[in-house]
Write a structure and sequence with these properties.
2 domains, TIM Barrel, eight-stranded parallel sheet, nine-stranded mixed sheet, 34% helix, homodimer, 17 strands, alpha/beta, globular
Chain lengths: 435, 435
Amino acid sequence: MPQDRIDIRIDNGLLVTCDSEDNVIKNGWIAVQHNEIVMIGKTGSEAKPDASDIIDAEGGIVMPGLINTHTHLPMSLFRGLADDLPLMEWLNNHIFPREATHINPESVYMATLLSCAEMLLSGTTTCCDGYFYEDSVAEAVRQTGMRAVLGHGVIDYPAPGIDNPDQNVAHALAFTEKWMGRTDLIIPSIFCHSAYTCSENTLKKAKAAADQNQLLFQIHAAETAGEKETMLSNHGVTPLQYLDRIGVLDENTLIVHGVWMDAMDIKIVSTRKAKISHCPESNMKLGSGIAPVQEQLNAGITVGIGTDSCASNNDLDMLSEIDCAAKLQKVKYLDPTILDAKTVLKMATIDGAGAIGIDHLTGSLEPGKQADMIIVDIKKPHMIPMYNPFSHLVYSARGSDVRDVMVAGRMLMRNRKLLTIDMNAVAASEYFMTD
Amino acid sequence: MPQDRIDIRIDNGLLVTCDSEDNVIKNGWIAVQHNEIVMIGKTGSEAKPDASDIIDAEGGIVMPGLINTHTHLPMSLFRGLADDLPLMEWLNNHIFPREATHINPESVYMATLLSCAEMLLSGTTTCCDGYFYEDSVAEAVRQTGMRAVLGHGVIDYPAPGIDNPDQNVAHALAFTEKWMGRTDLIIPSIFCHSAYTCSENTLKKAKAAADQNQLLFQIHAAETAGEKETMLSNHGVTPLQYLDRIGVLDENTLIVHGVWMDAMDIKIVSTRKAKISHCPESNMKLGSGIAPVQEQLNAGITVGIGTDSCASNNDLDMLSEIDCAAKLQKVKYLDPTILDAKTVLKMATIDGAGAIGIDHLTGSLEPGKQADMIIVDIKKPHMIPMYNPFSHLVYSARGSDVRDVMVAGRMLMRNRKLLTIDMNAVAASEYFMTD
């Protein structure tokens, strides 16, 4: 192998691999051929293969691209539109009416480009999304070269693009059929909004559709105390117990939020091998609650991190999200040792990939994995001195410290310049004019 | 006035004044003469005075510089040195031993320059600090041109530069006498570590020294449950009740943390008109607890925001701190309407200035106030679209979005370039070498 010429070699990096042994390699190099990592080495130890393009990490941290396990990309349209409001007033008086008037295939396409630009600029290489007009989301994501698991929203109410709710699962299926195998980077999924907005029949139909094609089944669950009370009074059980009773919890199910989970709920999710997407900043901003993440991890559940939408965060910055996630668990349990930097960084990389079912493809720097990686500049004042790269990435790094981004061996950002998105054109879009 | 030529005019800004009416001026301009704001206007409404230097804000947000009400600047030396550890293990096995071996006048000077660079790059124009070798802190801060309230640390143990604790108050006084009236930008203060590390006699002596010169008296209090238990068992009262009993709580006292405060404690602090510095990220990361900020505000207490040191945060970024502060209160009370964006932004500007006793000088954009202001770029993807500048600054902006920084009419950063600190020289310092 060393004698062959490979496509790209990244030199002079501090490699934080997030592999099964949490290997960190100083003065490391990574060889990329086509869309794959083919070799990883330490300068001076192994012979480096020749490469057509050599990228100097200049001593920066090279790590797997960040994986955002819960987004609604087009909602960047509503960033800061309405904040600090009661959840139902926010949804019913601001978000839903705005969706009715401002959501269309073109606005969804432009807002998705905007969200992808923000994600790339802050080091995210993969996201797991669910919204309406998801075909426009997929077209935009494909243009950017990012990796994404995408699901068309299923809800038992008229929704953007779906006047007749009876057709909601059919719409979602049509999306998956259109995008199945069309490109390696876009992986279709089924996204049901929740058990309080979808009937048992809808949930079962949607889950069956997902199972037919081995697709990820995403659903919001146990987000608020109000939701738990509603489920208890309507069905006599908690949201998770209800989802289990109707048979939609298994290893291909992603529970989004999972804040209001008791010991029994945690045991059920663990037994079913379902996964959880933890969205701390959204749960904080909407006053939903603090998820029992440490207990979920103790039960062996795979937990990834998500930002949720720009309407409830108000950004898509995974580095600020993991900082917040680590600190929030510590203060919940009044224990600073909980959710240490290494644990939360893996939740944002390899465990996030596992949560959305693609850890065989991405989430760590290892030969054979897809070449999804970022280079983080560690020379800025807020990154000096550096004792521990895990601690640095979680507690000190900002999205703006990400210098380069590669997905499947293709550079999507180099020296902070986006290579697949024309931000001037996106920023000039009428959909983002607020005056 | 318009016919006179003034020094600097800032044009084309979205002015977020943080004045008593929370005025926001679109297409606004600000006239600066010497170190003061002399006029504020709206383009097209009032005639603009000629200026020697015109700065184009390019539609960005112009606001008062951020005020960090609690720092230990030299502790950037220990950024990421030891994280995710129990508080006492962290202090006794890592921080205190490191201070004994690595803290000297030169390391304090260099680390303070590093911290000032980080603060300026993230929009902070004023900080309130307490540490040892504070004379070196003051020399470094003076070089940078920042505004600061500085106190030499008082603790009843041998400390860096103070072998004999009997001399601790004398040392602190010598510092205040040296810096009193020496420069407008450095305001001396007295900083006592806490009621569990200082005797009643020390606290009274230190407070008397502060009162003699009308100086701010800073003290950590009610940070952890353990501290509260210790005070209850040793003195039979809570930390705040104890400080009140010995007579050190008044309008010139800054309570740092104030996490474990009950209704009586809040009533006492409110009655005494003492101020509070709220440090949410430090309280989270150390697992200390969530301060009852909403109840403190309801009681009429002036509460500012602080980052605490780089060893317990691990940064000095006030924009991430206010984002976290707003979200943390919402999740504490399970109410998204609590600590709205406008309230928390004022805590980081005019209320922060009030908390440290300098709101007559800074904290808002108003004629007669010192010209301490920043320009925030709002053109980046994560800042698009913009509906509400308060929401944007709190929930979307990052330290890296701050483009320019002015303190007392002097530009300290322009287009992200630091004008008073040679970062290459600072970064090369032996004190930041970790290998």
